[in-house]
Design brief:
about 65% helix, mainly alpha, 79 helices
């Protein structure tokens, strides 16, 4: 072997050969991130870290090292005999498609690896299946998949990894993938990382049979394979091959030889390799020392490991944490895990430490070393805790889940859970482990875990057993069901109503047979849950006679209707026996046993009737109309009443079903007296009945000589609602003395709506005579301007504008749009004079800033009259005066259609001079498209040097989509195929959006064919859109609809470690350093100082020192230390301090703040009962809990399903006059508690009552409930809640809940659900204040730009573009995203949207930080100045109230 090594020194060595890296370099950085290795597998590969004398291309070296830092490099071999024919057949387009698909797959895998350092088997298989589905996998894709089958799968056992790699190799080869040397090298690497035993000789023979020549990397990895088995002779053979082929011996080869000698038992030779390397001119680097450390670890020689580490430190060679984790893995595998803590101590907790350590834990668990994995986990949970943002800690989830998946023993897992719980690292580890076991369908493990939970006193919920029942329910396996039920009994978990009704009783043919089995098993038949379940079962099966018998029995217990409402509705829908149905309804109405929630009202049954009608579709109602009428008639005879609000809901449904006669029968159930209505007609006609009542009241007030202005205002408001102008004006004349300014304002507005300029002006003058100081709001002023200018009263209209200025009435966005429409009306008449006068007045008075919308009517006026020259002059004038170029597109289109080449040339020169040549070309391109001159348009877009301007292309595409112009959009997509930097997926996405708008599935199908001809790999959103179009038209989808496999990381918070104090003195020494004997005051001051600096542990040490010396500090010192400890979540030490203080100070008690912190900390630890006791104690001591403490306590109670204590807290809070909390805190959390207990119906009923029974609560939010339900993936609850939101929106005109759900969907990235909700609840579009508030909140945090863009895509007009763009710019500023900010600014310029000064200031800062030149003048003042200015403008824009 020595001779062999001597010959190795003499081998011809060329550093240039290390740089022969061919292939697709643009993927190199991503590949480097992907394949830099994962902890837990042998480190095979090489890394050039030391320059070697010889021929050296410096530029190549620099580019190589920047592109591929420490990544195994490959030299692509050429196989002409195998490749030639295929390359001739494969078109350029096919290769382009392969490259796009490679990017797509690489992006997914790369994202996963960047976030977690690993890839899941599920993700890899999905990408594999997608690639196979294309039918023509590329070499790059094959390479990507093979490389992912090694150490990137730490959760998969080694044998499974090898099977997966072989399966991918065989399948892709079967599909026609051509393998070159890089693929064989990747397969070799996979073998090595998975410790697969193979014959290197056979492998070379396999390559030779495929006519693939090995390269240097192949030989290196074959040497590594021999060395892994300690076969130095085999390695020497390969070295001989390398020598004969004049290949260089790199550091990677020497590293393998270190391993080979060690595993052959020759440690001296292994250590001697370092000297051989130096003799060959290669300085041993970190990888070489890592190889040496690994072989020492395999021998368990900790002394040698420490010695080698010292040698490295002296040579200034440092290993990364990931390298040391290799040593930890080697020690553990060799059975020397006792030395692991000594290695862990040397880790520096670098930025990638946490994901790498997690992968090490996963690998150790996979290899059966979970104890060591847990010790590693505990070494970095402190770092995870620093980044924890939730109230309840859940650190170690990945560890517990993988332990379950690998079938570790329950005893071990339970021990890990106990340790995590005791350490405060996980709030509910056993519950989470149980969830994992149930998800993995490990029944025995789940039962064992539940027994352990019971032993530890943890609550067991009935729904934990549902998966166990499900297994037996499918086969009607009654013995299995009873065994699971007995298991619940043994564990002391009573089956609730949902368990009985959904999982137990359906397995039995009848209730009698169920009773027989229950009696034999000793199960109590008189429990409320079983009785309620029986009610559900009988109701759903339609056994009404037995149901009535059960409910009528005096011995029947009290059970609220909500417990079986859904089943009763399901049974009632059949209407098999109307008489018994009516008797059951009467019993529900009159028997308080079934109305426990609000016994004094009848709303329970009324809501039941509404739900019954709501559950029926139009066909059902129409076919059963006679039975429904009979049913309602029987209810009337039984004196059953419903509220007016419920009637309206039922009426709205029945009106949409076209059954007017049935509405009258429902109306008969309404109590007219209680609702202040005299007749049925009053209820049927709503407003008219109310109006007659008000008119009667008005006459009575006038007869008595009392003020009637309020009543008159209400009557006129009703008349305005019904647009009865003549009657309103008559009343005004009759009761003119009682007219108020607000009443005048309503009448003026109605006259404007009715286009009655004379009457509107007359009323305005009367109002001015009555009170010259009163001001209308901006909308009514603009309505006056509109109607007056329309009827030729221009001077009066201008007077209104002047009055607005005098009375300081600011124009809002909606009012400005109305002004623009006013001038557009004049433009349609060709009245340029009116437009000019109005524009000059508006801009001169400063009522509104010049904008494209306000300037465009003048140009439109000239275009309507055919005066193109006048239109051009007006554009030039607008640009000079206001820096806007409105209607330039329409002007160019007009000139193109007329063929006026001379004027078109002038317009183009003007556009080019003012906005640049590229913008001019796009103007011309879009004009040609718009006018159907497609040949000329193609010539424009093929101008050499023209680049894709995303914002301009998007503008025209959106214009075509809005106008539903398919032909110009389709031509634009076709013509831009070769446009530089054009996003083809975006283009086809626009086309498909228009197909969806027009419901043209044939065009969508043709678009799909074009995409395939173009060999485009569409994004997932495009495929989903196409699939939606085809599915909606009952067409087959010719591809698999992609799923969202993972989410991008929203942000990685930095992890900071506290620096250790430079002094090594103990706390006591530091206290006494300045004097020989420290006093109590010295200790107190030092303790308070340490608390203030955040050095809590040192402060606690000082306290223990004072206590040991018998010193007593002041109550403030103890209290401050307790607060500091609680702020760190250290409850145990805080309680210890409290006990010390109580021993020394008899009546010591915590301050308000300390108690608040204690409540929050205990809730975070899931010690909710203790927190509740602290809360009650505070109230008894006359202390005031903070809002945050109460909120956390209520949320904690909700998480445990404790509705009773939530109500108790609410009652106690009401006794505190100084604490003002929203009632929705208790409503929302009570609903969540019901959902936690499986009582979804009660939660829905509670939330729905907030909106249906209280008109003042229409703007209250329940988004907290939606978010929690979505976070918990509770599909059942989500279905019911979303149905409730839609019902409130469509039947009760209560839109807030639907708007909340829409925004929560949007915020959580569930855009398709948001879009679907928008389609079903169109009124959500109008909730603009809610949308605007959401945008304001989103713009306060980084990474929210996409959410705002999604909102604007779904609801484009929820606010003005100026607002949207300003907030988007704010988001880009927070994200430091200059490229997006540039694109936005270009879009604003293209659309003529003027940027606010604050927006320009933010953009200027991004340019400055990037070192780029500003394309505009930066506003000179500070950010604060422009922010205050903008705030002031917005406050001033709030118009005066009418009333």
């Amino acid at each position: 072997m020595a001779a062999l090594l001597r010959s190795a020194r003499l081998l011809k060595y060329s550093s240039a050969s290390l740089l022969q890296v061919l292939g697709n370099s643009r993927h190199a950085p991503a590949a480097g991130r992907l394949y830099s290795g994962v902890v837990g597998t042998p480190r095979i590969g090489f890394c050039v870290r030391q320059a070697v004398p010889g021929r050296l291309n410096v530029n190549s070296l620099l580019s190589y090292r920047s592109a591929l830092p420490c990544v195994s490099c490959r030299q692509y071999g050429v196989v002409p005999e195998q490749r030639g024919l295929v390359r001739d057949e494969a078109s350029v387009a096919v290769r382009s498609k392969q490259a796009q698909q490679f990017d797509w797959a690489l992006e997914k895998l790369d994202s996963s690896v960047r976030r977690t350092g690993r890839v899941t088997k599920t993700l890899l298989l999905r990408i594999f299946h997608d690639i196979c589905r294309t039918g023509y996998p590329s070499g790059n894709q094959a390479l990507l998949l093979l490389r992912s089958c090694g150490s990137l799968l730490p959760e998969v056992p080694l044998t499974e990894r090898i099977e997966l790699a072989q399966r991918i190799w065989d399948k892709l080869q079967e599909l026609g993938s051509i393998y070159d040397v890089s693929h064989y090298n990747a397969l070799l690497k996979t073998y090595l990382q998975n410790e697969f035993k193979f014959s290197p000789t056979d492998f070379l023979a396999k390559m030779e049979a495929a006519n693939v020549q090995p390269n240097r990397v192949t030989y290196q990895r074959l040497i590594a394979a021999y060395c892994e088995d300690g076969d130095i002779e085999g390695a020497s053979t390969i070295l001989g091959f390398m020598k004969s082929k004049d290949l260089p011996i790199t550091e990677a080869v020497f590293n393998s030889l270190v391993t080979g000698h060690a595993r052959a038992g020759d440690m001296d030779s292994a250590e001697g390799i370092l000297s051989v390397m130096k003799g060959a001119g290669i300085e041993p680097g970190p990888d070489t020392y890592l190889s040496l450390l690994n072989v020492y670890a395999e021998k368990g020689d900790i002394a040698k490991i420490k010695q080698t580490q010292e040698t490295m430190e002296n040579a200034d060679i440092h290993l990364m944490d990931r390298d040391l984790m290799q040593v930890v893995f080697s020690l553990t595998k060799a059975g020397h895990q006792q030395y692991v803590p000594e290695i862990v101590e040397h880790m520096r907790h670098e930025r990638r430490y946490v994901p790498d350590a997690m992968n090490l834990c996963l690998s150790l668990i996979t290899h059966g070393h979970e104890e060591t994995a847990f010790s590693v986990l505990k070494s970095f949970t402190g770092l995870l805790a620093d980044t924890q943002t939730n109230d309840s800690p859940d650190l170690g989830n990945f560890f517990l889940r993988h332990s379950v998946n690998m079938d570790k023993s329950v005893e071990n897992i339970a021990g890990f859970c106990k340790d995590l719980k005791d350490s405060g690292l996980h709030s509910s580890p056993l519950q989470f482990t149980l969830l994992c076991a149930l998800e993995a369908k490990k029944t025995n493990m789940a039962v064992a875990l539940m027994r352990r939970m019971k032993e530890e006193g943890l609550p067991l919920r009935p729904h934990y057993f549902w998966p166990l029942f499900t297994y037996h329910q499918k086969d009607k396996n009654i013995p299995g069901v009873m065994e699971a039920l007995r298991g619940m009994q043994d564990l002391g978990v009573p089956a609730d109503v949902d368990t009985f009704s959904n999982y137990i009783l359906p397995s039995f043919a009848s209730l009698d047979s169920a009773h027989t089995s229950f009696k034999e098993a000793g199960i109590d038949l008189d429990t409320d849950s079983l009785i309620a379940a029986e009610l559900r079962t009988e109701a759903s099966r339609g056994n009404f006679a037995r149901l009535l018998s059960l409910m009528s029995s005096p011995a029947f217990p009290a059970i609220d209707l909500s417990a079986f409402r859904s089943s009763l509705i399901s049974g009632f829908r059949g209407f098999h026996d109307v008489e018994i149905m009516a008797k059951i309804t009467e019993l529900l109405y009159k028997d308080a046993r079934f109305n426990q929630a609000v016994p004094e009202t009848s709303e329970n049954v009324a809501y039941f009737l509404y739900s019954l009608i709501d559950s029926m579709n139009e066909g059902e109602v129409q076919s059963k109309e006679e039975k429904l009428r009979e049913y309602f008639s029987l209810l009337k005879n039984m004196n059953i009443n419903i509220s007016l609000n419920i009637f309206r809901g039922i009426r709205n449904i029945l009106e949409s079903y076209h059954v007017p006669e049935l509405i009258k029968d429902v109306l008969a159930l309404v109590d007219k007296k209680e609702n202040g209505m005299a007749t049925d007609v009053a209820l049927l006609r709503g407003l008219e009945g109310r109006l007659s009542f008000l008119e009667k009241t008005l006459a009575e007030l006038k007869a008595e000589g009392k003020p009637a202005n309020s009543t008159l205002k209400k009557i006129i408001a009703h008349l305005c609602t019904e647009e009865k102008m003549e009657k309103a004006l008559e009343l005004k004349t009759q009761y003119e003395a009682d007219m108020t300014p607000a009443t005048y304002a309503m009448l003026i507005n109605m006259c404007c709506r009715h286009d009655n300029a004379e009457e509107a002006l007359k009323l305005k003058r009367e109002l001015a005579r009555k009170d010259s100081e009163v001001a209308l709001d901006a909308q009514k002023y603009v309505a006056l301007v509109q109607v007056l200018s329309k009827h030729g009263k221009l001077e009066e209209a201008i007077d209104m504008l002047k009055e607005m200025k005098e009375k300081d009435v600011s124009l809002r966005d909606g009012s400005i749009s109305l002004l623009s429409r006013t001038m557009n009306t004049a433009a349609m008449k060709g009245d340029a004079n009116t437009i000019r006068r109005l524009q000059e007045t508006i801009f001169t008075l400063g009522l509104a800033k010049p904008s494209n919308n306000l300037c465009s009517p003048l140009i439109a006026c000239y275009l309507e009259s055919g005066d193109s020259a006048g239109a051009f002059d007006a554009v030039v004038e607008c640009h000079k005066q206001y820096n806007h170029m409105p209607k330039i597109h329409d002007l160019i289109c007009s000139l193109v259609e007329k063929g006026d080449a001379a004027l078109l040339q002038k317009v183009m020169e003007f556009s080019s001079h003012e906005r640049g040549e590229m913008m001019m070309l796009y103007d011309l391109f879009f004009a040609f498209l718009q006018t159907g001159r497609y040949k000329e348009a193609r010539k424009i877009i093929e101008t050499p040097g023209l680049r894709a301007r995303t914002t301009r292309l998007q503008w025209f595409a959106e214009k075509c989509i809005t106008a539903q112009q398919m032909e110009p959009l389709e031509n634009m997509v076709d013509m831009t195929i070769k446009l530089f930097e054009c996003d083809r997926d975006d283009m086809y996405h626009y086309l498909l959006r228009l197909c969806k708008e027009t419901n043209d599935w044939r065009k969508a199908e043709a678009t799909w064919m074009k995409m395939q001809e173009e060999n485009l790999a569409p994004r997932e959103r495009t495929l989903r859109l196409l699939a939606d179009i085809l599915k909606n038209n009952n067409q087959e989808v010719p591809f698999e609809v992609p799923e969202v496999w993972f989410e991008e990381v929203k942000g990685q918070p930095e992890m900071f470690l506290e620096q250790e104090s430079r002094t090594g003195a103990s706390p006591r020494e530091r206290v006494t350093s300045s004097s020989k004997e420290a006093t109590v005051e010295d200790y107190k001051l030092k303790l308070l100082s340490l608390c203030k600096k955040g050095k809590v542990q040192e402060a606690f040490d000082i306290l223990k020192e004072t206590d040991s010396r018998g010193m007593v500090l002041s109550p403030a010192a103890y209290n401050n230390l307790i607060k500091a400890l609680l702020a760190r979540g250290n409850i145990e030490d805080a309680i210890a301090v409290k006990n010390i203080a109580a021993d020394h100070i008899p009546r010591f008690c915590l301050s308000d703040m300390a108690n608040n912190l204690l409540i929050i900390s205990q809730v975070k630890r899931c010690q909710v009962n203790d927190a509740m006791e602290i809360f009650k104690g505070m109230l008894q001591a006359d202390q005031v809990p903070s809002h945050l403490a109460i909120t956390r306590l209520v949320q904690g109670l909700a998480s445990e399903g404790n509705t009773q204590d939530i109500q108790g807290v609410e009652a106690l809070v009401k006794t505190l006059g100084s604490v003002k909390l929203s009632s929705m805190l208790f409503v929302n959390n009570t609903a969540l508690a019901h959902i936690k207990n499986g009582e979804i119906d009660r939660a829905v009923e509670l939330l729905e009552s907030v909106y249906t029974q209280n008109t003042e609560s229409q703007n209250t939010s329940i988004s907290f409930v939606f978010r929690k339900v979505l976070d918990a993936n509770n599909e059942a609850a989500l279905d019911r809640l979303s149905a409730m939101a839609e019902r409130l929106c469509n039947h009760f005109a209560s839109y807030r809940s639907a708007a909340d759900l829409f925004l929560v969907y949007l915020d959580m990235g569930r855009t398709e659900e948001a879009k679907f909700l928008l389609q079903r609840c169109a009124a959500v579009n109008e909730q603009k204040d809610v949308m605007f508030t959401y945008m304001l909140q989103a713009a306060q945090q980084p990474g929210q730009a996409d959410k705002i863009k999604r909102l604007t895509e779904l609801i484009p007009d929820f606010t003005e573009k100026e607002n949207i763009y300003a907030h988007l710019m704010k988001c880009y500023s927070l994200d430091k995203d200059l490229s997006s900010a540039k694109a936005l600014y270009e879009r604003m310029q293209a659309e003529g949207v003027k940027a606010e000064e604050l927006t320009l200031k933010r953009l200027a800062l991004l340019y400055t930080e990037a070192g780029e030149t500003l394309p505009f003048q930066e506003p000179p003042e500070s950010f604060r100045f422009y922010a205050d200015k903008l705030k002031k403008q917005r406050l001033e824009s709030l118009g005066p109230a009418d009333d």
